[in-house]
Amino acid sequence: MTDRIVDILFQISTGLLAPTLVVLLILMGGILLLLGGITREFLDRRVHLQTWRAFLARARSTGAWDEGFYDLRLVGYPARFQARTRDARHNPLVARKCLEDLELDMARRMAWLTFAIRVGPMLGLVGTLVPLGPALMGLAAGDIQSLSGNLVIAFTTTVFGILVGGGAFTGNLIRRAWYEQDLSDLEYLADLREHGARLGSNGEGHPTSLPLGPASVGAGPRAGHEAPRAGGRHA
Questions:
Q1: Residue 84 belongs to a domain
Q2: DSSP 204
Q3: Residue 185 lies in a domain
Q4: How buried is 94 (Cβ within 10 angstroms: 0-12 exposed, 13-18 middle, 19+ buried)?
Q5: Phi (first) and psi of residue 109, to 5 degrees
Q6: What pLDDT, on a 0 to 100 scale, did the predictor assign at position 210?
Q7: How far apart (Å, rounded) are the C-alpha atoms in residues 71 and 170?
Q8: What pLDDT score does 214 carry?
Q9: N-terminal to C-terminal alpha carbon distance within the chain
Q10: pLDDT band at 221 (very low <50, low <70, confident <90, very high)
Q11: Given this model, what pLDDT does residue 34 score?
């Protein structure tokens, strides 16, 4: 009975080898595309980095929103924010919604990298252990060709699993740093624009007036009537 169960498990584990290799190959292709995309984005960011940093420095020094933002040539999330809010640049709600959508987009992009970081090495381990059974059987039977073939598969899947995990981890670090910095800068600019809109609605850039209390409402007229009355007594 035990031998039958072991034989069933052996057949199942052996059958998992082909799907494991296919998934590893797909993940490896995704990692290569990821690294190519990161390289291209790095070159694009490098071209427009000085302009973007100069604009942010000017915004920090003045503490005011600059409509010149929509004349900049940007990449990444700043470019997407620029495109989505261009037609509603005076509506702070649109900017807030756009920022929330960009945060969700970042979470989705990072999710598959997290998946690859964890699953890649796991699949590499599965691809390593599964061929060891047939390899040991070949060794016991003196079949050196079967032994060497299965060991090649085992070591190859190990390397692929490590490469997938390492590539995904590297891409995750780089893109998370870029996107979090982009979202932080855009949130600051959105706050500046919202603050400027509030000041503009109050007229001439003055802060919002505080509501007047009962004492302050009556203070002005009462003081104005007291002065003539006092002058009349002295007269």
A1: yes
A2: T
A3: yes
A4: middle
A5: -65, -40
A6: 34
A7: 33
A8: 40
A9: 124
A10: very low
A11: 94
The phi-psi region of residue 30 (left if phi > 0; otherwise alpha if psi is between -120 and 50; otherwise beta) is alpha
The whole-angstrom separation of Cα 94 and Cα 43 is: 30
Residue 235 lies in a domain: no
Neighbour count for residue 13 (Cβ, 10 Å): 14
- Binning pLDDT at 50, 70 and 90, where does residue 137 land? confident
Q: Evaluate whether residue 3 is within a structural domain.
A: no
Which residue is associated with the tokens 């584990």? Answer: 13
76 near 182, Cβ under 8 Å? yes
One-letter identity of residue 45: R
Range of the domain at 95: 10-226
For the beta carbon of residue 96, count every other beta carbon within 10 angstroms.
15
Count how many domains the chain has: 1
Q: Give CA–CA dist 90/55, Å, rounded.
A: 19
**Dihedral of CA 187/193/195/201: which sign?**
negative
Euclidean distance between CA atoms 147 and 98, whole angstroms: 57
Highest mean pLDDT (candidates 30-34, 129-133, 186-190, 226-230): 30-34
Q: What's the pLDDT at 231?
A: 46
Residue 200 pLDDT greater than 80, yes or no: no
